[in-house]
Specification:
Blueprint lengths: L12 H7 L4 E5 L5 H8 L5 E5 L3 H11 L5 E4 L2 E2 L4 E8 L23 E10 L1 H4 L8 E5 L5 H6 L2 H4 L4 E7 L10 H10 L2 E8 L2 E2 L2 E5 L1 E8 L2
Parallel strand pairs: 1-2, 1-7, 2-3, 4-6, 7-8
Antiparallel strand pairs: 5-6, 8-12, 9-12, 10-11
Amino acid sequence: MRYGMNFSRQPTLVQFLKSRKIDTVLDVGANTGQFARSLRLSGYAGRIVSFEPTSRVFGLLQSQASSDAGWSVRKEAVGDEAGSLEINIARASELSSLAPFSGRADMFGRATEVIGTESVTVVRLDDVLPELPGENFFLKLDIQGYEKRALEGARKTLKTLAGVQLELPIVHLYDGGWTFGEAINYMDESGFHISQISPTNYIIGDEASATEFDVVFRRSE
């Protein structure tokens, strides 16, 4: 007897994209393009638009995308108001953020050390989306404690998306961020339910315990 469950395989993000006929992925917080490259290696052949605000890392991202005609890059941060802000540049570039580090960030050692700041351009997704080609969009947000602010600038965009991936914390590395539960409630109120959850970073010295999860949300039926 079948109950609509299959325990023999684990669903993947690319399966999700294919099942929703996603033709454009918005890769917000691209860093050097790790997420986009993983999509390509997993078989996603659609359009990717990557956002990365800091100059040095953007140069590396631009180089990665240069040979892929379906992958465009934008030197912008994403938030709730268009303008410019100072970003804290961490020694580990993927931890750089518009939000300040919390006291808990020390658990990552020198990786969270702020080695500089940079004034970056900030855009709202609601302003950007009309400029972009595509019909079925998926949004990935990995912007280190600034996800809620980005979604506040994407109220209209959320209504058009087939799915969203957020990096959500259990341990808060940044001040002013939301809790895991607050994020789930926000997405539920925006019309999305959880589809997939995967642990990402782990507590140093306790690798059996995750600090963050990548959570994929599907639009509610």
